[in-house]
Amino acid sequence: xxxxxxxxxxxxxxxxxxxxxxxxxxxxxxxxxxxxxxxxxxxxxxxxxxxxxxxxxxxxxxxxxxxxxxxxxxxxxxxxxxxxxxxxxxxxxxxxxxxxxxxxxxxxxxxxxxxxxxxxxxxxxxxxxxxxxxxxxxxxxxxxxxxxxxxxxxxxxxxxxxxxxxxxxxxxxxxxxxxxxxxxxxxxxxxxxxxxxxxxxxxxxxxxxxxxxxxxxxxxxxxxxxxxxxxxxxxxxxxxxxx
Length: 243
Known about the structure:
243 residues; Serine Threonine Protein Phosphatase 5, Tetratricopeptide repeat; 4 domains
């Protein structure tokens, strides 16, 4: 499962100074009890005002959601973030956080919606460009996926760079840009081990790119490799019959 790595910080709760006002009121009892009563009444009044503040209610839900995520309770954290948005529709961090959680659950349609409402496409951040590119790929908007994935690069041997290149290659393939896809797939270190999961997918896509570029020997090698493992995998059987 894909995971976002963007860091989420706690939101500030307004009205913290009211506590100090109350403390001053208590201390003032030893000096002037009438003045102390006024201070305590004011502190109570402001406490009730800030308690009912939609901004604070939203921030409290947001902060509780962070704690729940740290404890692994994703379901209830999402409910809290939805409430945070209901209390304050301008809480962009809540939209963004919710988008991250949807991305982690591979719900790319909702992830993209909330990430964009949270301003993820308005900042120059390579990790966010990668996440948006993956989202667009999974909802089959391949042109937008290419746009975002081409806009960033990572360290040559990093996991993120391999995932970026691999997803970009698949997007090129869907756009029938077979040469570009082939170049990217060939540039990756070929996965080893049992032919299943992403390893099986890699050889399938590499074989398809070779097929459309008339690299018959290579296409036959990779397509038949996949077909022997699973004849029903995607459209591998149709390609195999034409080789």
